[in-house]
Design a protein that fits this description.
Two copies of one chain form a homodimer. By secondary structure, chain A is of the alpha+beta class. Helices cover 38% and strands 27% of the residues of chain A. Chain A has three domains: 12-223, DNA ligase/mRNA capping enzyme (D-amino Acid Aminotransferase, Chain A, domain 1), CATH 3.30.470.30; 226-291, Methane Monooxygenase Hydroxylase, Chain G, domain 1; 297-342. Chain A has eleven helices and 17 strands. In chain A, the strands form four sheets. In chain A, strands 1-2-3-4 form a four-stranded antiparallel beta sheet, with no helix packed on it. Chains A and B meet through strand 5, helix 2, helix 8, helix 9 and strand 17 of A and strand 5, helix 2, helix 8, helix 9 and strand 17 of B. Strand 5 of chain A pairs antiparallel with strand 17 (358-359) of chain B.
């Protein structure tokens, strides 16, 4: 992975700049190179590989794995990769942009210097979770604002992962918080164990699991009904801004899970009712709001040093988002800002339909 | 509308042949010419115009109409236009194919000769409804098999409609059955009247209404929750064969109706539960069936003269459909055949997922 590989992709690269450092990155899925791969000041930082999903554990797990399977928690936040680029510790988004907010936020709260001193080619991979999150807010007990949880450790150039056990020991040694580890199971008992684990996670409104081969090479994910329905609730609250395939896939997952778990008619009906509420009630709330003359937006709260908050708002605006600041207060050394990302289609289309515009499909 | 207009569209025309009569037709929506327009032996038969829809009656009706609005029932079946082409009475599908089944079926059961003798340029427009229907089966009390209901009368060349009153009187005079007429209302009371009518239709599991200006020129449709949910139930029973926009539009309609009708929380929750059942339970039934080693298909029963049934099966097979005959019996002069149209994607994809194939989205 060097300059030459990048030259071939030139037409598909986005350009960026962070504090005078120019970089190029692969913003979408391409054959042969991970989305999010970055070339910055002669350093390549590999994209985080797409994690495949199974809709059916009992068949999908043994089809995908041999031998033993480790199970760790999949958290609902945003994916970040952290690497040391010529002495600067930078946080990269899934698509390969330097995130000025996450870079500063982690720089102030997590000591990664020791990691990069010992392992300069490390790519620290993890999830940013919690309610005060500028991209995807989700509540986790014990997480009051926004925290990092490591879930992978890879070589930034080759993308090679550490084996799970080694990775977990290393992060422990450095005092870096990690995603939950559930266990390592024989491939033939793994599906049953995962069903049990996912049932518990579902009851706690958590997202799901990532299964891996012990060497960390092979990955597979599976999510809870709570996650599917939570995503649907959010997507249908912005029905004309979310992709229909996004919605459709989550509906499909619910059906396969219900069948695999052999739900009795009452349980299945309960799932159907919850699904219907997730879809309809979020949409009627949105329409009611717009009918009342208000606008719908995507609201987030962040708590960070004033300079970090400024960097975030500037970064989002540079991406073309229109932001409205709802609240802006100081709190100790931090600034707590609630802002709303403007969404266009849901407001415009809903208003049009409410005004009696005609649908010609 | 003549040869010249058609020449310009040459690249977008489909060709067909019916009993030695060659024809060309416009199979999809094009600017400036109705989908389904046919040129056959020098005669042009106009496509039936797309009927626009409102999601909100209170605003949509006065935006769309002036003065007075007539309301008739919209039936759930398939659209057919009948015209006299050089002495042969032919039935055309929505997309402009001669339907050999409908042509024969109507020829045997409905006396249209008198209509065309008096009005040779008439285009008789209506819906084929009932449970024994090769395209869209829906139960209507009093309709045991398959029947025709006229809902429009147009000039076949110009597409000009008759005014509603004149049209209804003419069909009455010829003894041709028609869709139900609910009334003519002042535009400002029409939305309220339609809400009342649609609520009754919904309780009877019927589809909805078409509103028209009394001259027949302007049309607008609005459907019941029963129709939206019935369509969703069907679509999600074949989830990988139906378009996601088809599903999405019907979900959206439910939300706007719930808001416009200002449903109390309990009623809205009930609608959400029904919606969830329509979506999830049809899908889990399909997955269960395929998990049991069976195939899913689209099943229809038709009852007609043996020659008419043969013409249908040949017509469907000529369109590339794979049919399986489930039952085939005589009944008086008629043959009663139950057949299944094979669907591909739902069977293949569902089986793949059940076998543990991986999803990479």
């Amino acid at each position: 992975m060097g300059e030459e590989a990048f030259e071939k992709l030139e037409d598909h690269l986005n350009k960026g700049e962070y504090e005078g450092k120019r970089y190029r990155h692969v913003p979408d899925y391409r054959r042969g190179i991970e989305r999010g791969t970055v070339l910055i000041e002669g350093t390549a930082v590999r994209g985080f590989p797409k994690v495949p999903r199974t809709l059916v554990l009992e068949e999908g797990v043994p089809t995908h794995f041999d031998g033993r399977v480790t199970v760790e928690e999949k958290l609902n936040g945003y994916n970040v990769r952290v690497a040391n680029v010529n002495g600067d510790v930078l946080a990269f988004s899934r698509s390969g942009m330097v995130c000025p907010f996450t870079t500063r936020y982690l720089g102030n709260r997590l000591d990664l210097e020791a990691v990069f001193e010992e392992y300069p080619a490390a790519m620290v991979c993890g999830e940013m979770i919690g309610p005060e999150n500028p991209y995807t807010a989700h509540d986790y007990p014990g997480v009051d604002s926004l925290e990092f949880r490591a879930f992978d450790w890879r070589d930034r150039e080759s993308g090679e992962p550490l084996p799970i056990e080694e990775r977990r020991e290393r992060y422990d040694a450095f005092g870096i918080p990690q995603t939950r580890f559930f266990g390592t199971y024989d491939v033939h008992e793994a599906a049953g164990e995962v069903e049990r684990i996912v049932t518990d996670l579902d009851a706690d409104d958590r997202e799901g699991v990532v299964m891996k081969s012990p060497d960390g090479e092979t990955q597979l994910k599976y999510t809870t009904s709570a996650a599917n329905q939570g995503d649907l609730e959010f997507a249908f609250s912005l029905p004309f801004d979310y992709g229909q395939p996004f919605m459709f896939r989550r509906i499909i997952r619910e059906a396969f899970q219900s069948v695999e778990w052999d739900e009795d008619p009452e349980t299945r009906e309960g799932r159907a009712h919850d699904l219907g509420e997730a879809i309809l009630l979020s949409m009627t709330d949105t329409i009611d709001t717009i009918a009342d003359g208000e606008r719908i937006g995507e609201r987030h709260t962040v708590r960070a040093r004033p300079e970090t908050v400024d960097a975030l708002l500037e970064h989002l605006r540079n991406q073309g988002l229109t932001l409205e600041i709802i609240e802006d207060e100081g709190s100790g050394d931090d600034r707590v800002v609630t802002f709303e990302k403007r969404v266009q289609s849901t407001n415009d289309k809903t208003r049009n339909y409410l005004e009696g515009h005609i649908v010609t499909e």
